[in-house]
């Protein structure tokens, strides 16, 4: 298993590492603890950005549906 796969698997279990776990993971992967810490920090930032994109897409879809419903109601009530 590659370093990235191991890091991803660890991230899925816990997205923040305790210092002991960080050192252990670094030793297992042949990395410095600082490298592991930075990888997790960057991965959390990517995760947050992706979540914001998903939230925006969902809100946009809801807005578009509401706008279409509103426009439909406007056209029905006009004489």
UniProtKB/TrEMBL annotation:
GO terms for molecular function: DNA-binding transcription factor activity, RNA polymerase II-specific; transcription cis-regulatory region binding. Keywords: Coiled coil, DNA-binding, Homeobox, Nucleus, Transcription, Transcription regulation. Residues 1-50 form the Homeobox domain. InterPro entries: HD, HDZip_class_I_plant, Homeobox_CS, Homeodomain-like_sf, HTH_motif, Leu_zip_homeo. The keyword Nucleus applies. Its main location: nucleus. It is found in: Nucleus. Residues 42-69 form a coiled coil. It holds the Pfam family Homeodomain. Residues 3-51 bind DNA. The keyword Cell cycle does not apply. One of its GO terms (biological process) is positive regulation of DNA-templated transcription. GO terms for cellular component: nucleus. Belongs to the HD-ZIP homeobox family. Class I subfamily. Transcription factor. This is Homeobox-leucine zipper protein. The lineage of its organism: Eukaryota, Viridiplantae, Streptophyta, Embryophyta, Tracheophyta.
């Amino acid at each position: 298993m590659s370093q990235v796969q191991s890091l991803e698997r660890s991230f899925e279990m816990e997205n923040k590492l305790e210092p002991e776990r960080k050192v252990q993971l670094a030793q297992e992967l042949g990395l410095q603890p600082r490298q592991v810490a930075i990888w997790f920090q960057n991965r959390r930032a990517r995760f947050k950005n992706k979540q914001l994109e998903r939230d925006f897409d969902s809100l946009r879809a809801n807005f578009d549906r509401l706008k279409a419903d509103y426009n439909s109601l406007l056209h029905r009530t006009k004489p």
